[in-house]
């Protein structure tokens, strides 16, 4: 049985030579991780679907520029991250959530489901309100389980900068939820 | 909140991701029980890690590969076309129209055989064996355009020798005068048919 890394290398090599079938196999291989990553970044399923498709299209069009210095998944995630940041910039409406303005939930609320939903909304609203680079570092490190070296490759920065962005994000979350039940 | 400087604090992401060996994991857990900062961070990271994603319907994953390559190919074509300057595209279009108007197109070279040469120099086609003489009585007094073409066609009825020679020339990739005459004649007939005329009007 072919190892995933070897299989990926073969597919990438064929796709670089214009083999559409090979590129479609690469899409099949990475479409779920790409969608989930973008879903976490955007917080919106429809937007994540659109960005997943457009990111793969960009990857197809720039296939000849991929030199194999990182894994193909890292390369795809970098394209996805750029696409997401471009969307934010184009819209000019990155939502800065007012942490103080979000209602704090009480453990005594009888409507437990409602409380959980609100609590969840508050948590994700705060995560979504983090500056893009901090959110990206947090998602890549915790959701994707990438080491900081890999986080840096996706973000196009140094590992030190990736680590700093991650720590800023965690500290902001800790400040927002200090003294609360999570 | 005070930032924890304990060694265990740096291992929290690895702990959440299950990347620590059992001893290190136990050390982190022990520390977090007595450290408010690390305990909160652990809970926050766990919540983040366990978040469930709203998966799209199966149609999305099933159709995505083909949609991606189709869109990419379309965009690639558009990109190539956008590289051609507008003036060049316009000039090419004008050239095509002019060529169509003048009916100039790629043609095979014209080569006449010996009999055709003699005929063009004024020799009697009947004496050359290129056809049979038609009795004058069968020809209408006033010939219309189409009749004339028809009669001319009969006069030019090819002999066996001419057919053989023409076939040989055509096999060599030439268009004989006879073939060219036929082509022009067929085009004229085609242009005059009502269907073609209607088609032209409709298009």
Fold and architecture overview:
The complex is a heterodimer of chains A (182) and B (203). By secondary structure, chain A is mainly α. Chain A folds into two domains: 94 residues, Orthogonal Bundle (Rna Polymerase Sigma Factor, Chain: A), CATH 1.10.1740.10; 86 residues, Winged helix-like DNA-binding domain superfamily/Winged helix DNA-binding domain (Arc Repressor Mutant, subunit A, Orthogonal Bundle). Chain A is 71% helix and 0% strand. Chain B is an all-alpha fold and 203 residues long. In chain B, helix 3 crosses helix 4. Chain B is rod-shaped.
Tally of DSSP β-strands of chain B: 0
CATH superfamily of the largest domain in chain A: RNA polymerase sigma factor, region 2, helix turn helix motif
Average pLDDT score of chain A: 85
Describe the global form of chain A: elongated
Q: Count the beta strands of chain A.
A: 0
Separate helix tally of chain B = 11
Oligomer: heterodimer
What is the number of domains of chain B? 3
Label the structural class of chain B.
Answer: mainly alpha
Low-confidence stretches of chain B: 199-203
Return residue spans of chain A where pLDDT drops below 50 for at least 5 consecutive residues.
Answer: 96-107
Class from secondary-structure proportions of chain A: mainly alpha
State the shape of chain B: rod-shaped
Tell me about the biggest sheet of chain B?
A: none
* CATH class term of the largest domain in chain A: Mainly Alpha
């Amino acid at each position: 049985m072919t190892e995933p890394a070897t299989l990926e290398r073969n597919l990438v090599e064929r796709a670089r030579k214009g083999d559409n079938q090979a590129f479609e196999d690469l899409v099949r291989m990475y479409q779920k991780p790409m969608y989930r990553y973008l879903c976490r970044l955007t917080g919106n399923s429809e937007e994540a679907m659109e960005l997943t498709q457009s990111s793969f299209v960009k990857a197809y069009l720039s296939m000849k520029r991929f030199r194999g210095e990182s894994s193909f998944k890292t390369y795809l995630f970098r394209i996805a991250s750029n696409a997401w940041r471009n969307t934010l910039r184009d819209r000019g409406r990155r939502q800065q959530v007012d942490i103080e303005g979000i209602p704090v939930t009480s453990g005594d609320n009888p409507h437990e489901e409602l409380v959980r939903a609100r609590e969840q909304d508050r948590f994700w609203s705060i995560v979504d309100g983090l500056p893009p680079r901090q959110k990206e570092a947090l998602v890549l490190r915790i959701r994707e389980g990438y080491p900081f070296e890999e986080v840096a490759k996706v973000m196009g920065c140094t590992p030190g900068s990736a680590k700093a962005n991650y720590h800023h994000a965690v500290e902001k979350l800790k400040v927002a939820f200090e003294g609360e039940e999570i | 909140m005070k930032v924890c400087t304990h060694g265990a604090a740096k291992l929290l992401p690895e702990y959440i991701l299950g990347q620590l060996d059992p001893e290190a994991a136990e050390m982190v857990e022990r520390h977090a029980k007595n450290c408010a900062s690390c305990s909160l961070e652990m809970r926050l990271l766990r919540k983040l890690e366990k978040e469930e994603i709203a998966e799209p319907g199966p149609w999305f994953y099933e159709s995505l590969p083909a949609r991606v390559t189709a869109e990419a190919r379309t965009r690639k074509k558009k990109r190539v076309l956008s590289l051609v300057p507008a003036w060049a595209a316009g000039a090419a279009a004008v050239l095509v129209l002019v060529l169509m108007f003048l009916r100039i197109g790629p043609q095979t070279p014209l080569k006449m055989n010996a009999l055709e040469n003699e005929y063009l120099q004024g020799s009697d086609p009947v004496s050359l064996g290129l056809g049979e003489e038609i009795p004058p009585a069968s020809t209408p007094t006033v010939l219309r355009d189409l009749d004339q073409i028809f009669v001319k066609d009969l006069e030019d009825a090819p002999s066996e020798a001419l057919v053989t020679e023409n076939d040989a020339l055509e096999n060599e990739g030439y268009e004989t005068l006879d073939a060219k005459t036929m082509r022009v004649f067929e085009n004229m007939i085609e242009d005059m048919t009502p269907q073609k005329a209607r088609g032209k009007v409709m298009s």
